[in-house]
């Protein structure tokens, strides 16, 4: 009786831990409710690198001139939650976009959250290919009658596969 209760309690605990969500943090982790202090007009690329580290990514905003590279730095943090066998979902996302002027000084800072994201609708059209599509039966039986006649004569191929010179 005691063994049955012990096994039942172990099964209940194992089931309860399977329902506990697993949190995964990606990117720079901010303290809850805090934001990094970035002062436009005072901070530069060097001060941000010292304080926050390298940005998650940087953008050009459509300008291809070599002197205009890295005009915007993005600091991205994300918390994802996964529960047992279900797909993980994003629980929280914070993106700080830091825009620089020509001198490398911070011009503006924008903050985006999970609610600012947009779903992207993928086009599920397929590119047509030439030729015909074979059914499963045609694929399985398609080579019957196509074997070379000298395969059954007992002649051996040299190493390297069929189609090479034959031994005499």
UniProtKB/TrEMBL annotation:
Residue numbers spanned by region Disordered: 148-168
InterPro entries the UniProt entry points to: BamE-like, BamE_dom
Range of residues in the leader sequence: 1-18
UniProtKB keywords: Membrane, Signal
Keyword Membrane: yes
Annotated ranges, domain Outer membrane protein assembly factor BamE: 38-108
Annotated PROSITE patterns: PROKAR_LIPOPROTEIN (PS51257)
UniProt entry tagged with the keyword Cell membrane: no
Record-linked Pfam families: BamE
Designated name of the protein: Outer membrane protein assembly factor BamE
Organism: Hyphobacterium marinum
Lineage: Bacteria, Pseudomonadati, Pseudomonadota, Alphaproteobacteria, Maricaulales
């Amino acid at each position: 009786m005691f063994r049955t209760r012990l096994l039942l309690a172990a099964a209940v605990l194992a089931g309860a831990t399977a329902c506990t969500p697993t949190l995964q943090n990606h990117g720079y982790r901010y303290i809850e409710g805090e934001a990094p202090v970035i002062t436009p007009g005072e901070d530069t690329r060097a001060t941000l690198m010292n304080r926050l580290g390298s940005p998650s990514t940087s953008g050009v905003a459509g300008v291809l001139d070599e002197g205009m590279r890295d005009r915007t730095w993005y600091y991205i943090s994300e918390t994802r939650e996964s529960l047992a066998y279900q797909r993980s979902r994003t629980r929280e996302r914070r993106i700080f976009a830091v825009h620089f002027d020509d001198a490398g000084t911070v011009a503006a800072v924008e903050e985006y959250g999970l609610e600012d994201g947009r779903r992207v609708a993928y086009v599920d059209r397929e590119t047509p290919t030439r030729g015909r599509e074979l059914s499963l039966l045609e694929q399985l039986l398609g080579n019957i009658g196509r074997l070379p006649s000298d395969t059954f004569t007992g002649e051996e191929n040299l190493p390297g596969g069929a189609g090479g010179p034959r031994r005499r």
